[in-house]
Amino acid sequence: MADPQSILVTGGAGYLGSVLVPYLLAAGHRVTVLDNFLFNQASLAAACAEPSFAMVRGDARDQRVLADLVKDVDIVIPLAALVGAPMCDADSVGAVSTNRDAVLTLVNMLGPDQRILMPITNSGYGVGESDKLCTEESPLRPISLYGRSKVEAEQAVLDRGNAISFRLATVFGMSPRMRLDLLVNDFVYRATNDRSVVLFEGHFKRNYIHVRDVARTFLHGIDSFDEMHDQAFNVGLSDANLSKRELCERIKSHVPGFVFLEAEIGEDPDKRDYVVSNAKLEATGWRPAHTLDDGIRELIKGYAMIRNESYGNA
Question: Looking at the whole model, is its pTM more than 0.90?
Answer without folding.
Answer: yes
